Amino acid sequence: MNQQLMNQLWVWDAQELRILGQGLAQAHARAGEHAHCHRGCFSCCLGPFPITALDALRLQRGLDALHLADPPRALRLSARAAEAWAALLPHFPGNPATATLDESAAEQTLYSPTLQMLPCPALDLESGACELYHHRPVACRTFGFAVTLDGTRLDPCSLNYAGLSREQWEPLRLTLDPPSPPPAPLPPGLTVVAAALALFTPASPACPPVGPPATAPTAPPAPPASPA
Ligand code: SF4
Question: Which of 6, 20, 72, 221 is found 20 to 30 A from 180 (Cα to Cα)?
Answer without folding.
Answer: 221
